[in-house]
Design goal:
Elements lengths: L2 H14 L6 E3 L2 E3 L4 H7 L3 H21 L4 H30 L3 E2 L1 H22 L10
Antiparallel strand pairs: 1-2, 1-3
Helix pairs in contact: 1-3, 1-5, 3-4, 4-5
C-alpha cells in the first residue's frame, strides 16, 4: 500500500472515531463530541469538533493533494507531521481532563493509532522510495 493511501485511510478512520467512546468507566462511556464534554470544557460543540478532529480533516485533505513533485511531497508531509503532533497534543490535553477515574475508550486509543500511522507514513514519504536495480552485465 502506498503511503499516500495510508494517510488517507488513517485520516478517514480517525474522523470516524468521533462516534466512538473516548472515555469509558464501568458501564458509562462518552463520545468525544457530546454535550456533556462540551459543558465540562465550557466550549460549543462545533468548536470542540474543529479543535479535536481538525487535524484529521487537514491531513485527509492534504493526502488528496500529495502530487508527484518531490518538493511538494516533502512540504505536505512535514505539514502532516506537524498537524498530527498538534492532534496528539490536543487529544492528550482534552482526555487528560476527562479520564480521571475512568479509562481511555476504544475511540481514544484508535485516535492515537491513526495519528501515529499518519506520522509514520509522512516520514516514509519524506524518506522516499529509492528503487535499487541491479545491472546484469
Amino acid at each position: 500500500m502506498k503511503f499516500k493511501k495510508l494517510i488517507t485511510l488513517a485520516s478517514l478512520v480517525g474522523l470516524i472515531t468521533f462516534l466512538l467512546p473516548v472515555v469509558s468507566s464501568g458501564n458509562q462511556s462518552l463520545a468525544p463530541v457530546s454535550e456533556h464534554i462540551s459543558e465540562y470544557l465550557h466550549v460549543p460543540l462545533w468548536y470542540l469538533f474543529l479543535i479535536w478532529y481538525g487535524a484529521f480533516v487537514i491531513t485527509f485533505l492534504l493526502s488528496l493533494v500529495i502530487g508527484k513533485g518531490r518538493v511538494l511531497q516533502i512540504i505536505i508531509s512535514i505539514i502532516v507531521i506537524l498537524v498530527s503532533l498538534f492532534g496528539i497534543f490536543v487529544h492528550f490535553s482534552l482526555t487528560q481532563k476527562l479520564v480521571g477515574r475512568s479509562t481511555l475508550g476504544f475511540g481514544g486509543i484508535l485516535y492515537y493509532v491513526c495519528v501515529l500511522i499518519n506520522i509514520f507514513a509522512a516520514i516514509m514519504i519524506i524518506k522516499g522510495t529509492k528503487a535499487t536495480s541491479k545491472r546484469i552485465d
